[in-house]
Design brief:
heterodimer; A: 6-stranded mixed beta sheet; 5-stranded antiparallel beta sheet; 0% helix; B: 7-stranded mixed beta sheet; 4-stranded antiparallel beta sheet; globular
Chain lengths: 109, 116
């Protein structure tokens, strides 16, 4: 079983739609959580950290459910430029980042 | 602020040959990471340096992979001999520190390796 599991997608949505990605992790000792974004054939970049209380950054909202070992990312009012792969990431007790395989999002005009 | 630099960007070799990749992290970043990203997967950590010391190399295939960061700045990753399954993108990343500061890592553009 993978440590971080994501639906690979692709999620194909029209501009302006709201889309949600989910991620589950197996290591209950995971301490911190992040979403990274990776454009096609580019390097990953940090999108946002995920806090226990949930957090929002503009059109992006991240939620954490430690009891269910579940992380989510909600994107509102999707833009064409949101098309990318979204990587769910946990950090273990040795501060190592564990990346999921990513969920691909395609936003169409 | 200049980003993480890597070279070469692309490399094609035959199996059993050797190859080396170079990385220059963001100035002042003490922690440097090498990741392997196979197509369709997320990056997997190979080795982490704090200054010029190794913090974690538990997932580095030490029979064929080696890495060094001699002066605590730039780093090289070597594969000798290469196997077909080493075909991947090799990403270098750096962060201001390890530990609690490891969450935001800045990645270089990667080296795309094809082993024939």
């Amino acid at each position: 079983r993978k440590e971080v599991e994501q639906d690979p997608g692709p999620f194909n949505v029209p501009e302006g739609a709201t889309v949600a990605f989910n991620c589950t992790y197996s290591n209950s000792a995971s301490q911190s959580f992040f979403w990274y974004r990776q454009d096609c054939r580019k390097e990953p970049k940090l999108l946002m950290s995920v806090y226990s209380s949930g957090n929002e950054d503009g059109r992006f909202t991240a939620q954490l459910n430690r009891a269910s070992q579940y992380i989510s990312l909600l994107i509102r009012d999707s833009k064409l430029s949101d098309s990318a792969t979204y990587l769910c990431v946990t950090r273990d007790s040795s501060y190592k980042l564990i990346f999921g395989s990513g969920t691909r999002l395609l936003v169409r005009p | 602020e200049a980003g993480v630099a890597q070279s070469p960007r692309y490399k094609i070799i035959e199996k059993r040959q050797s190859v080396a990749f170079w990385c220059n992290p963001i100035s002042g970043h003490a922690t440097l990471y090498w990741y392997q990203q196979i197509l369709g997967q997320g990056p997997k950590l190979l080795i982490q340096f704090q200054n010029n010391g190794v913090v974690d190399d538990s997932q580095l295939p030490k029979d064929r992979f080696s890495a060094e960061r001699l002066k605590g700045v730039d780093s090289t990753l070597k594969i000798q001999p290469a196997k077909l399954e080493d075909s991947a993108v090799y990403l270098c990343a750096s962060s201001r520190g390890g530990g609690i500061r490891s969450g935001e890592q800045f990645f270089g553009p990667g080296t795309r390796l094809t082993v024939l």
